Amino acid sequence: MLAYLSRYINNFSSHWEPLRRLTRHNAKFKWTNEQQTAFDDFKKAITSAPVLIPYNPERDKFVICDGSLTGLGGALFQKTLHGYQLVHYVSRTVTDTESRYSHIERETSAAEFTTSHLQMCLLGVKHFQLATDDKSLLPLFNNPQAKLLPRIERLIMKMQNLDFTMIDFSGVDKHVRAVTIATESEQETIATETEQDAVLQLIKPAMQTGVWDKKDPILKPYIDVQPELYESENVILRLNKIVPPENLRVKIVRIAHKQRHIGLSKTKEMIKHKYWWPGMNLQIEDAVKRCFECQISTATKHTEPAKMTKFPSRLWTTVEFTTTTSFEATRKKLNWKKIFATHGVPQNLQSDNGPPFNSHAFSYFARESGFRHKRITPRHPKAQGQVEGFNKLVNKIMTIARHDRNNPDKAIYDRLQAYRSTPHPATKVPPYQLLMNRESKCKKYHDKRHKTKTHKLKPGDAALVKRENKRKGLTLHEPYVYVVTEIKGSQMNAKRIKDERKICRDTSKFKHLPTTKPNEQITLRNENIPNISIPDTTEIEQPTATPTNIAEPNDSTEKQQQPEPESQPEQQPRRSERLKNKLIAKDI
């Protein structure tokens, strides 16, 4: 009777071994606690309610096998709405010869015994997993070119009529979680949507008949994986991964990424662990790139190619200038009249946009002297890179002079004298001979060194702007959407949609914001920002300025100049006399 009920008893052979020893030839009958425990276990097993379910040939199968010194056993599991449930047990005791097998041979015998006794359930199954607790069996079973021992090779050859993959027993729980849908409601949702999906409904007949139209563009993405596709409870799967209907794929990607914003690669791994569909990589990449929270929090490595300033046709045409003090303090320190009397008044004087160049006093001085004041792109010191680079040398000289307790002004002039009398590596001539007529660095060298690339923004595009003076905890970009209004060279004008604030920055400060449609609503959680829509470019007011990599002044603004004051008021310096003014009169 126990042999008949063995299919319902787990580890039957191991429990039966103490009682079986009493039935051997010439064995002394001795009833001990070991036999009594085995007898009680059998009574409990045959009197308790079984947990087995009926066999269904259309459901996915999963087999576990194990071998020991006393017996071989296995179990057949079947996929249901609540996961994998037990269908059948198999077990037998080992012979005296088998008890002397090596461990790997016993495990192989257990796999062969389990599959041979379950052939009525496994024959015809497209694919199933066979789990074992011995990892050394995996390369023997899964590699057709593996070199095997004769006994192991004979056992594996007996199993060649079955389509299975050997997996590690320790990964069974993980495998079951990956294949099994978490809840019954999720299963019903996917099954319902699959019934309404036109593409998946075309795949089902092809899966059943095995006839695939290679010219059909709808079926073409599934043809390469058609041997791995099957249907279970109105849900299409590829091996252990669900093929969701098309209208649920966007939701799956959004939930997987929006929960933690874990990045592109981790989002792919999370989704691929449970789902598969054609073109999923491109869809995930597009969704992550359009994530507004990720866009304002990540930096972009973008350096615009160098745009060379037109070389002047004559000497002393353009002079680059910078200072850190007010204009009045600079004028007291530097004799402008003497410089202009020696070299002449330049046609253009280029500077940044900070003080003192934004003062009325400097504007009056420019009109009085007769030169044109040109400003570089705001917040982009690279546009005046030669002067800014020379400032590093000046700061170094002043630091050394203070350390040696020398006069910083004298140290700077000594350094300038040595610099101007030394042949320049580009011209091979001392600068004082050329009188500031040396060429700048090669454009190709700059582009190669900084790995530049041209921006892809155009008027009407939505963009983000990099924060200035970013503090810890804030996003790298402002959480506001701007619309590009005009591009001239490396200078870009944009208008903020929220309050129509206009800004002018270098193109490297902007980051393209992908949008699906022109009127797509963009919202940011945890920010007091209303819904934002990208307007049409025809509604954008064209700016009156004419920006380039060097900001050109507006002619109309120059015509509407204020009347010159009768007497120019004298402004007090903003800094103490103890602080040395930094001044560069660019000679070369």
Automatic annotation (TrEMBL):
A GO term, aspect molecular function: nucleic acid binding
Question: Biological process (GO) annotations?
Answer: DNA integration
Q: Which residue stretches does the UniProt record annotate as biased composition, category Polar residues?
A: 526-551
Renumbered residue ranges of the record's region Disordered:
526-588
Bias category Low complexity: which stretches?
Answer: 560-571
Sequence ranges of Basic and acidic residues compositional bias: 572-588
- Read off the PANTHER family from this record: INTEGRASE CATALYTIC DOMAIN-CONTAINING PROTEIN, PROTEIN CBG26694
Name of this chain's protein: Transposon Tf2-9 poly
Instruction: Say which species the protein is native to.
Output: Paramuricea clavata
